[in-house]
Amino acid sequence: SSSLSSSDSSTAAEPLQADVVFQYENGEFSPSEVTIRRGQTVTWVNEGEDPFWPASDDHPTHQVYNNGAFDPRRPILPGDSWSFTFDTIGDWEFHDHLYPIAIGIVHVED
Predict the structure, then answer these.
(1) Which of 38, 60, 81, 84 is the most buried (most CB within 10 A)?
(2) What is the pLDDT of residues 71-102, one digit of tens each?
(3) Neighbours of 108 (CB within 10 A)
(4) Rounded to 5 degrees, what angle do the CA atoms 73, 31, 12 make?
(5) Which 3-state string (H, E, C) describes the chain?
């Protein structure tokens, strides 16, 4: 029999959580905030009928996260998605460039 307990199986070598998804529909991101580990990828999925453009604050320059790295530089069309990998620890606010009152936040931890 094995003497390993469930806590012994948790190591830093385990793969990061695979899918962290924001859905966008009717001018809102759902969920509005997530917490991930550094190196994880987040995907924004357009479930609505209008394009949207997720990008780092501040509007309209998108420079807060790594001088504009968090910006697809194009609208995400209905039914399409865009993914971004966060390599910098921090609390990263974002918005829809086309409808900037739609906001969210990605908390990136070590």
Answers:
(1) 84
(2) 999 999 999 999 999 999 999 999 999 999 99
(3) 20
(4) 85
(5) CCCCCHHHHCCCCCCCCCCEEEEEECCEEECCEEEEECCCEEEEEECCCCCECEEECCCCCCCCCHHHCCCCCCCECCCCEEEEECCCCEEEEEEECCEEEEEEEEEEEC
